[in-house]
Write a structure and sequence with these properties.
single chain, 299 residues, alpha/beta, Nucleotidyltransferase, domain 5, 3 domains, two-stranded antiparallel sheet, 11 helices, 7 strands, 12% strand
Length: 299
């Protein structure tokens, strides 16, 4: 050892050539610098704020961010412990879709993929890879994307689908319009407005009885409407939605672990988009890596 450098680093002297030097461990340097990248991602600090906190220059911090944005976070390879998951996707200005699986119990992202759109053909290879790595869910809470539902049932036949009540309610009320023109539409809209408030078996049975009573009361009047009528199309879509979803709408009442909606993942997406907008201007490739880092670090 031969004293300290001006930067207070330990100096050493070669016994042969008598030159002094200091050791630099590049991996330790990267690890220490990653702290500022983590703050940039997790806490959405701006580069200007990080300059004040770290004492580094703007260009230095941008190099740190770009170094880690050129890489992807490491993902675990054993998913066997996750039995209750939430599936959902969200779009980013039609430039692609982030698809994620969230653990119901810990409300943490298990894994993600970024694709140009959401659909069964896109997620099937991903699901097969996850199955090979141990993922065997008992329940999947998700929206009504039929091609994805078919993919899940093909790959995990034992898994049960819990349809998101909020998606059903929102889609049905959107088709029925804010002010339905028919008495049947108004009655069905009022029934749909109670869907997300069902918390007991008794309330479930009351909802099903009310829906069947609505069908008996308005079936003939709906059929009598002209096939090209907007009201007829809206009612037909909503009836089809409820009939298809009804078998998978109320599993959460018998399995308290799972939620009745995908709101936990939707809320995560809302925060992610708000934080991402603070870092506008990054390239498409860095954007995809940023989203994956965000999902990995936000645990």
């Amino acid at each position: 050892m031969f004293g300290m450098s001006p930067n207070q680093k330990q100096r050493f002297r070669c016994s042969n050539c008598r030159r002094t030097f200091i050791y630099k461990c590049q991996s330790t340097k990267r690890f220490n610098e990653k702290h500022w990248f983590d703050l940039w991602v997790k806490e959405s600090y701006s580069v200007r704020q990080l300059c004040n906190l770290s004492g580094h220059s703007r260009s230095k911090l941008e190099r740190i961010n770009n170094y880690w944005l050129d890489r992807l976070p490491k993902e675990q390879n054993d998913y066997s412990k996750y039995k209750y998951i939430i599936y959902d996707g969200t779009y980013f200005h039609k430039n692609g879709c982030l698809i994620s699986l969230m653990d119901v119990k810990k409300k943490m992202i298990i894994t993600t993929m970024y694709a140009y759109k959401e659909g069964g053909a896109i997620v099937t290879p991903w699901f097969k890879k996850l199955k090979d790595e141990g993922l065997k869910p008992r329940f999947v809470v998700m929206d009504g994307e039929q091609t994805v539902i078919k993919a899940i049932r093909a790959i995990w036949p034992q898994a049960k689908i819990q349809r998101c009540l909020y998606h059903i309610q929102r889609e049905g009320m959107r088709w029925l319009r804010t002010y339905p023109k028919t008495a049947a539409g108004r009655a069905l809209r009022a029934l749909l407005s109670t869907l997300c408030n069902i918390n007991t078996i008794k309330e479930r049975n009351r909802f099903i009885r009310s829906y069947k009573a609505w069908l008996d009361a308005y079936r003939d009047s709906v059929r009598s409407l002209p096939s090209g009528n907007i009201a007829f199309k809206d009612l037909k879509r909503t009836i089809g939605l409820l009939n298809n979803a009804l078998p998978d709408m109320f599993h959460y009442l018998k399995e308290p672990v799972i939620p009745g909606t995908t709101n936990a993942l939707e809320s995560f997406y809302s925060r992610l988009k708000a934080d991402y907008r603070r870092h506008r201007g990054i390239t498409q490739n860095h954007k995809i890596h940023y989203l994956k880092w965000y999902c990995s670090l936000k645990k």
